[in-house]
Every structure is written in C-alpha cells, then in structure tokens.
Specification:
This protein is an alpha/beta fold. It has 2 domains: 130 residues, Aspartate Aminotransferase, domain 1 (Alpha-Beta Complex); 237 residues, Type I PLP-dependent aspartate aminotransferase-like (Major domain) (Aspartate Aminotransferase, domain 2). The chain is 39% helix and 14% strand. The protein has 12 helices and 12 strands. The strands form 3 sheets. Strands 2-8-7-6-5-3-4 form a 7-stranded mixed beta sheet, with helices on both faces. Strands 9-10-12 form a 3-stranded antiparallel beta sheet. Helix 6 links the parallel strand 5 and strand 6.
C-alpha cells in the first residue's frame, strides 16, 4: 500500500539537495564559527553566505537575520524581546485569537509580568480586520503581532495593510511567517514588517533551525544570555550544518515558488470542490485567500481522531489541528475563534499538500474519504 503524506503543515521531509549541502558541515567543515582558526573561518563564511541567501528572499539585510532553533524560539524572542526592550515606552501588545501557541502563550506569560494584551477577534474565515487593529491601538501600544497565514485553516492575513497602520502609528509590527515563508512572496520593506519569524522544517529543511528577521532599527532584548552570538541577540554556538540546510531549502523554495504554488493550488481546489460534495461538509478558512497547500473541513457527525485513524489505515497521513496541539483534547482555538462549536471543531480535518503529492494521491483520497465518513457517521454518537 502506497503511503500518502498530507501533513506538510506539521513538517516536511528533508530534500536530498539539502542533505547534500549539509553533509560537509557535519564532518570535514565542523568548526565553531566563533573560532579564529581556519575551521572556524570556514564555518563563519558559510553562515555569512546562508544569511545573505535567506535575507534576499524577504528583501532584508544579511545582518538583520538572527538564527534560532525554530519558529517557537523566534516568536518568543520577538514578543518577549520587544516587550522588555521597550517597556519604558509602553506595556500594550496587540495580537489575534488565532495565533500559534508560540505567540499566545508568551503573551499570556507577559500578562503575568504586568503587560496588557489585546486579543483581536477574526471573521468567519479567520481574517483579522485591519480597522480592528487600528481601533485597538493606545498610547501604550508597543507591538502588534499578526501571523501571515494561519497554520490550521490556511487563511492569509492582510499583513501589508496592518503593517501600514503600524508604521503610521510608529508601532513595531511582527508577523509569524512560519507557514508562509518559502510559499508566498514576502517583502519586509513593502509590507512594513519590523520582525518576522520563519522555520526550516516547513520548507524541506532540517528540524531545529529557524530565524528571526529583526529590522536594524528595532531595539530588542535577548532572552538567552551567554556568549553573545548572533549579533548579541541569540547566544549559543550556531547550528552551522542546520543553517546551511535551511539556506539551501530557502534557495530551492524561492526558485520553485511560483510553479509549485500554482500546481498545489490546482490540487487544493480539486480537493475542496470534491470534498464539498460530501453531505454536511464545511470548508474552514477563506475560500480563496488561503495557502496554496491548505485544505481544512469539518464534517457533521464525525469525530476527528477516528477520521484520522481510518485515513491512516488507508495509508493517508493527515491531521485535525496544529501538530503542536494535537495531543490536547481541547477543541482548536482557531476553529472556536471562527465560530465553530466544540462538537464541530472535533470533527475537523486538515490536509496540507507537498511537492511530492500527485493527482493520483488526490484521487485516492477522494475515493476513500467519503466511504470513511459514511462509515463513521453510522456509528457516530453525535446527532446530525
């Protein structure tokens, strides 16, 4: 039985080209980038080249790229770093109710430290209204953090408009671009983004590597203290091999972005069109302003975990919500925010495409999914 992986929002396999680019830096070129000898210089030069590659994709300067262990650390550094560096100017942060836990939990923690946080509502598609952002701004607002695209329902947020508002009010703007980086065009200057988080393993790079873009004019406090690496913003010996892999993944994603995005949109739209024909099925997220690879539905009378297990038996890997929250029995905070009940939220399914998925894969999913849903509805304890 062929296995079909449709959970690329959770993680992606490392590409062969990426592994090959990393190989030397595990063995022959294993030096510490802070060392002064030739081994260290080789590592430092590789880091510099990687920084330039990654900066180019978002129209940033190389020295504005700070390497981290991933999206969670980047988000924490952005939120906490800005908060503590600018608390003399104010103590108010604005975000949305559908952000990733790596934003929401640092914000909740900051509230215990005396900061105030406004959690904006979204519409039924999961869209943040820029007007709501502007209304929420006070004289004490120091940061707005709105994700570029939602990790569960795929909705793309109007961050260029929000960035423009933040610039007008002279407030720092951060976006969590973990799901959109390498999939959607990003220009931090045109979008007025001051800080941006991204992760390697979402674009066929290695796990344990990420980055935070920090505009050179932004004052930020480090949350890790030690040797003063990464322009004194992120201490810790750099993961050179991982960073090399990240940069190679970025290079490949940039080159293939347009063509691959168009291919995935065709497959995505086919899935949405055909799944919508299943009785009592409902699309979550915006119908058009969504990530090229994201499909998210809820099915009346179906329990999500059972649906996943049945799909897995057929060789299809999918998810119900963010992988970071998948072990929780609580309903998705994203689906709750867009108006779904607890019961509806537990009947959700997220399919996220990748570059190796084919139309044959999609046809197989469309063949077995209706059968599984009908089977589960026959034994469902839910009224529908």
């Amino acid at each position: 039985m062929k296995k079909i992986y449709l959970d690329h929002a959770a993680t992606t396999p490392v590409r062969k080209e990426v592994l090959e680019a990393m190989r030397l830096y595990f063995s022959e070129k294993f030096g510490n980038a802070s060392s002064l000898h030739s081994f260290g210089k080789d590592a430092k030069e590789a880091l510099s080249k990687s920084r330039k590659t990654i900066a180019k994709i978002i129209n940033a300067r190389a020295n504005e790229i700070i390497f981290t262990s991933g999206g969670t650390e980047s988000n924490n550094l952005a939120i906490k770093g800005v908060a503590f560096a600018n608390r003399d100017k104010g103590n108010h942060i604005i975000t949305s109710k559908i952000e990733h836990p790596a934003i929401l939990k640092p914000c909740k923690w900051l509230e215990k430290q005396g900061f105030k946080v406004t959690y904006l509502n979204v519409d039924k598609y999961g869209v943040v209204n820029p007007k709501d952002v502007e209304k929420a701004i006070t004289k004490n607002t120091i940061l707005v953090s709105i994700m570029h695209a939602n990790n569960e329902i795929g909705t793309i947020e109007p961050i260029a408009e929000i960035g423009k508002i933040c610039k007008k009010h002279k407030i720092l703007f951060h976006t969590d671009a973990v799901q959109s980086f390498g999939k959607l065009p990003i220009n931090v200057k045109k979008m007025n983004i001051n800080l941006l988080s991204a992760s390697s393993h979402k674009i066929y790079g290695p796990k344990g590597v990420g980055m935070l873009y920090v505009n050179r004019k932004v004052n930020i406090e480090p949350i890790l203290h030690g040797g003063g690496h990464e322009y004194k913003l992120r201490s810790g010996t750099e993961n050179v091999a991982g960073i090399i892999g990240f940069a190679k993944a970025v290079e490949l994603a940039t080159k293939e972005m347009k063509k691959e995005g168009e291919r995935q949109i065709k497959l995505r739209n086919k899935l949405i069109k055909e799944i919508s024909k299943i009785k009592d099925s409902y699309l979550n997220g915006h119908p058009t302003f969504r990530l090229p690879n994201n499909i998210n539905f809820w099915f009346k009378g179906v329990e999500g975990e059972s649906l996943l297990l049945r799909l897995d038996e057929k060789g299809i890997a999918a998810s119900t919500q963010s992988a970071c929250s998948s072990s929780s029995l609580k309903p998705s905070h994203v689906l709750t925010a867009i108006g779904l009940s607890h019961e509806q939220s537990h009947g959700s399914l997220r399919l996220t495409l990748g570059k190796e998925n084919t139309e044959q894969d999609i046809n197989h999913v469309l063949e077995v999914l209706p059968q599984i849903i009908n089977s589960l509805r026959k034994i469902s304890p839910f009224k529908w």
